[in-house]
Amino acid sequence: MSTIELRYTIVNALLLNKPDVNAQDLQGNTPLHFVVAPGRVELVRPVIDQGCNVRIANLEGRTSLHLAAMLYKTIPPIILPWLLEAHAKINVQDQAEQTPLHLATVAKQTEAIKVLGKHGARQDILDNDGKTVLMTAFPLNLFQDFEDIFQGSALSASLFKSIEAGAVESIGRLMEKMDRDSWPPMDESGYTPFYVAAKSGKPAGIARVIQKANEPGFDPQSILVPKAVPTALSIAANGGLDIVKAIMENVRPETRQKLLKQADHVGKPALFWWLHKQAVFSHLVDLGADMRTTGRDGNNLLHVAAEFSYKVKFVTEKIETILGLLVLKDMLGETNKDGRTPREVAERGRNPKKVEFLDAVMRRLDMLDSRE
């Protein structure tokens, strides 16, 4: 009798006494863990047939399916499908929030990846590091092993996370695999990749997204949608000149002009959001942003500067220099939907220094008029 036959006979004899096949040792391992890990194929089926719960996890949170996935090359390949047939939870996460597919990817078990993928293992689940299996696969040169099993939701989830991480190469590869007819995808907040990239403050990331979106098959103006959330330019206000330049230098000229004019979900053009950063404001004006623009509430740039902690002196001087004194005077006299001029907005907001400054500007303009 061979060693395998002897082992099988002994285990069967023990199983006839109906032992507790779900008993766990101090590390939480069941008999199934012990026979799967070394690949005792002749013992796996008898233990399962005796009623061993294939879903029990050890103290690391790993089930026998986790072990079979990460050890696939060193154990008989039939064990993995056996566990799946026995209703092992395919997307169960261990203490590191890694699924069997995560572990198969980390261990470079390419055949296990295919088996799990064909059985519907989700690719969009995040581990403790905030990574999907596709993000894990890319630096390991395993991205191509998902070629026939890519899931749209996983591509989107991986793209958003790669953008947040500034993983430029990963961004490009993921976008290549995405359905261009349904581009751009949206995250749970309704943001597109452009918005997430702009918000992340990573110039290389937003530049890469825009560059790929300019390729055939993508809509080059998709950065303009949707219109129910902040625009890419306004949400980039958390960043600085570098992030704005990355956007404006990579979009097509016709898209650039539309971005400059586009109002956000509260009716504010992008220029309003950049009053607090003079270099960016000036850059947008140089690109053609209209300083005569008004928001949905009827506020012009001077209203906004008078109400918030922006430098009204800077805005006033900018308008005077570029648009001229007549336009400046017109804008100082314009009323918003509440019927208030910029000076009245400053007065209502109890900003005496701004009121004093605007009064001085008006007196100067009146004096110039009287001389004429």
Automatic annotation (TrEMBL):
Pfam families (UniProt xref): Ank_2
InterPro entries the UniProt entry points to: Ankyrin_rpt (IPR002110), Ankyrin_rpt-contain_sf (IPR036770)
Keywords for the protein's UniProt record, in alphabetical order: ANK repeat, Repeat
SMART domains attached to this UniProt entry: ANK
Residue ranges of ANK repeats: 27-59, 60-95, 96-128
SUPFAM superfamilies: Ankyrin repeat
Name by which UniProt lists this protein: Uncharacterized protein
Protein source organism: Fusarium odoratissimum (strain NRRL 54006)
Lineage: Eukaryota, Fungi, Dikarya, Ascomycota, Pezizomycotina
